[in-house]
Design a protein that fits this description.
Length: 475
């Protein structure tokens, strides 16, 4: 009876999917974004940089799980899209390195509470824009080629993140990035094992190939850890693993269950009144820009991959944007930075997720993670295990490159700037900004300015102002 209700509520048959497929997709999405459970508190508390912000690590961890669970459930039940939500990467760094120091410099006692107030206000503004249809207008104003470019650009971006987090791509002082010279290090062996296992299974059209790749990489890591523990620190195995991320970050959990930390230190501690001070207005604007473009980019990328966009429009776009806005305000109340849609949702879509049930499964798993944090930490705290999913999903999303109108420079050049800009600026939002500024300029130069919606002209002007005034001052 319950299964029938779920099938009808989420229109599973109409979307050619099943409860099993949706559950598998939700699990896949969760595993590829579970890192945020551990990264977010490390950033917001300042532990990652040895610069305490005053925020409690445990409380932020609990806030991260709760905000991700509630926000993903809202997206799944209200907008009914397979898009999961959690505190966004990028926004959290801006929160710590820009908003908090500015509040402290202005003389506010609890700077982090003021920064949470800034996030809350930006969330209210997001919600207002969503309800009046402004965000949907932005989405509908984007041409098909631009949409394909966004999807492809996000694919390249997340594939780059996957290769970087696995250690395949490393920093280089001469060329910025380079190929890791130690291709047979423990980290890369584990990563490539998971990648090739998933690729082979995907080629043979095995259901859940990406998840099997993550599982295989996890099993290999466990075997290597057990072998290292048995062989001892003086063994050849220990020498091989010396100085690797595996030796430093991967360990077997001491238990499977643990009570979640208290939320009290951050719950409803936001300082909205101080956040309304004129000195904090620029930061509200920046958070607005960041979440607007990140959300648009993520929704377009995931929707294009899943085939949701019809006649250049995304059905239920208003509901999706409203869900995202509610998530941000909720996150600030719980005690975390901007909550937004996650591009890792594309991993679940690649596994067949097509309805909001996928997001609901993610929500449930984030709640479960509150009590099984040792096990989740083992997988999520060691990037080479989950990096293969990002690379494979990136490869699948990049096929949209072929759908760009390359014979029309007024369409292909802005789309190309988006595709190139996202990985090179390490930001979905900044990649989109490059394309959105270029699009009306190229169209006008070609004498085809009437093809551009007024929305994109306004956005282009605002983005130029943003980069000249706001971004230039805030870095």
């Amino acid at each position: 009876m319950f299964a029938q209700f779920i099938t009808r509520f989420f229109a599973l048959k109409e979307n050619n999917t099943t409860i099993r497929i949706e559950a598998l997709a939700g699990l896949t999405t969760f595993l590829t974004m579970a890192y945020i459970i551990f990264v977010q508190p490390a950033i917001l508390s300042g532990r990652m940089f040895d610069k305490p912000t005053g925020m409690d690590f445990g409380a932020v961890a609990t806030a991260t799980c709760l905000s991700a669970a509630i926000a993903s459930a809202i997206m799944g039940l209200y907008a009914r899209y397979p898009v999961a939500q959690a505190p966004g990467m990028g926004q959290n760094f801006f929160f710590v390195f820009s908003a908090v120091p500015a509040a402290a410099a202005a003389g506010f006692e609890n700077a982090w509470a003021v920064a949470l107030g800034v996030v809350f206000i930006s969330g209210i503004l997001f919600l207002g824009f969503s309800l009046i249809g402004l965000r949907e207008a932005v989405l509908n104003a984007i041409s098909p080629s631009m949409k394909f470019g966004i999807a492809a650009g996000i694919g390249l971006f997340i594939a780059f993140i996957g290769l970087q987090s696995a250690g395949v791509i490393v920093k280089d002082p001469g060329t910025a990035v380079s190929l890791c010279p130690h291709l047979f290090s423990p980290d890369l062996v584990i990563f490539f094992f998971g990648l090739f296992l998933a690729a082979v299974l995907q080629t043979r059209r095995v259901s859940g190939a990406i998840l099997w790749g993550i599982g295989g990489a996890t099993l290999l890591a466990i075997v290597l850890r057990l072998g290292l523990n048995a062989a001892g620190n003086e063994s050849a195995l220990a020498t091989w693993m010396k100085d690797s991320a595996f030796a430093k970050r991967f360990d077997l959990p001491h238990g499977l269950v643990a009570l979640p930390p208290s939320l009290a230190p951050t719950f409803l501690k936001l300082d909205v009144r101080s956040a309304l001070a004129p000195v904090m207005w620029p930061f509200i604007i920046v958070f607005l820009f960041m979440v607007l473009f990140d959300t648009v980019g993520t929704l377009v990328g995931v929707a294009e991959q899943a085939g949701f966009i019809k006649d250049n429009r995304l059905p239920r776009a208003k509901e999706a944007f409203t869900s995202d806005a509610l998530a941000t305000t909720l996150g600030a109340c719980l005690g975390t930075s901007t909550v937004t849609s996650y591009i890792e949702s594309a991993a679940g879509v690649a596994q067949g997720g097509r309805t909001g049930l996928t997001a609901v499964v993610v929500a449930i798993l984030f709640l479960v993670a509150l009590f099984f944090s040792p096990l989740i930490e083992m997988i999520g705290n060691y990037p080479p295990i989950t990096a293969s999913a990002l690379v494979l999903v990136g490869a699948m999303m990049s096929r949209n490159i072929a759908r760009v109108e390359w014979d029309d420079p007024s369409e292909s050049i802005p789309a190309f700037l988006i595709m190139l800009g996202m990985p090179l600026t390490y930001s979905i939002g900044h990649g989109l900004a490059l394309g959105f500024i270029a699009y009306p300029i190229v169209k006008l130069a070609a004498g085809r300015g009437r093809e551009v919606s007024w929305v994109l002209y306004v956005l282009a002007v605002l983005l130029v102002v943003y980069f000249l005034l706001v971004r230039g001052r805030l870095g």
